[in-house]
Write a structure and sequence with these properties.
single chain; alpha/beta; 434 Repressor (Amino-terminal Domain); Rossmann fold; 3 domains; 6-stranded parallel β-sheet; 5-stranded mixed β-sheet; 12 helices; transcription
Length: 366
Amino acid sequence: MRAKRATLKSIASDLGVTHTSVSNAYNNPAKVSRELRERIIAYARTVNYDGPNPAARSLRTGRCGAIGVLFNDQLSYAFTDAHDITFLRGISSVCEEEGANIVLIPLQNRDPERRDTLTAIVDGYILNAPYKSHPTIRQALARGLPTVVVDFDAPDLSSVLTNDRAMMHALVSHLLDLGHRNIAIVTFPHSEGQGATLTLADDFEDESYVVRERIDGCRDAFDVAGVARSGVRVCETMNSEEGGQSAAERLLQLQPELTALVCFSDRLAHGAIAHCRTAGLAVPGRISVTGFDGLPAFGRQGDTLRLTTVRQNAFEKGRRAAEILLRGDGAMGGAGVQKVAIEAALMIGDTSAAVWDGPAEGGQGA
């Protein structure tokens, strides 16, 4: 005859304590003494009891103790991109304090049957700069769970935003002040599946808040300087060092006289610099290159040039988003909707210099 499975109630009876005390030993340790909790846990192990069933607890409380973080890329991206690693550290710092778990939900999935299906059971969402019309994003919003958006335009939701437009204006103005006029832009795609070479005069779909804000910041600076938008090329590519290399190669083939590349991430900038070095173009002697993020690149060592970039506080973005979701009211349309602005800062490094006005002989960084 199979032995009866131990339960919270049976353990409470065996130990002569209340059911609530046993429950708190697992779910709210701060509500019981350390000695009592250790006694309960030790006894539970002797009767092969590993804790309350998560599914049963979820049915009882209406919560599963996890939040979903949705982001545009494949799962591996979250473990290799310096910004996302730091952003997730910010989220996890709050989750550790609150006893919550994180479910990563990548929006790029090679399995077409799973790609647009939202199956994870969570208590709420953090949307990290996704494309607005992605089916999974629309599914997440339709669920009506508490949701906080980061670098995403959603007036009815709590949000954490960086001053992207102002920072790109400042960064491009820095290059213009150095005399540069032959400037091109390297960006991640403005909408899913794109990878075109455009100009600043072209229309950009309102799919990516980050791309739209940074493009508008560039436009602001060029407009003030009287530089025609139609003369500024914009190359879309995947957000990686390889993407930056290929974009820089493409742009320099189209416009060999370029003297500056404005990249929308540090990863893209490092890739662009790598191509310039391979092509014998000194940075910044022959061509200036700028980035955006201001974070140490994952696994990158040995670079002697400090990148001219915009330093954004990815850790604070993640932390504030998690605080709103777990400690505030991130519910759609709720009275507790919060708008948090995280200010970034322009960092002048070694990869931008006065415009090149003649044949480059040697130079820095090549």
